[in-house]
Fold this sequence. Notes:
alpha+beta; 434 Repressor (Amino-terminal Domain); two-stranded parallel ribbon
Amino acid sequence: MPKQLKKQTAEPLVEISLKISKSKLPVVSDILKAVMALAGGKVETKLETKPEPKKAQKKPRAAKMNKKTAAAQPARRGRPPGAKKPPASPETAALIRDLRTKAGLSQKGLAVKLKVGQNQISLLETCKQNLTPALAKKLGRLFNISLPS
């Protein structure tokens, strides 16, 4: 047989004790108000805030280069900073366009045969990109010619 609880008027029927972070306090407070309303105000709440977790500290930045550390660095590959790339050759661009149209290929069709993107063919034909040695070799094989790289 279940025990019968004695109803005491001085103590609440339910006690809730929570430890939450300060950022969650407004949300939990609203939830507890709703619970109290459902229980007819017979819920006692005690909210304690716990300290916020510490954020991870940033790693220190690498030291700036000076004359001593610059000498220890390996040489950079490619163009020096600020140097402009050489302009694409209009003659090569016209040659690629002529070869493609005489073969009856679209830019997409040529791109598929060369295993490159159609955008790269477009850039080559409009002098916005230089012909790479690898692509010159592929074009040479496809059209039986030799191209400047």
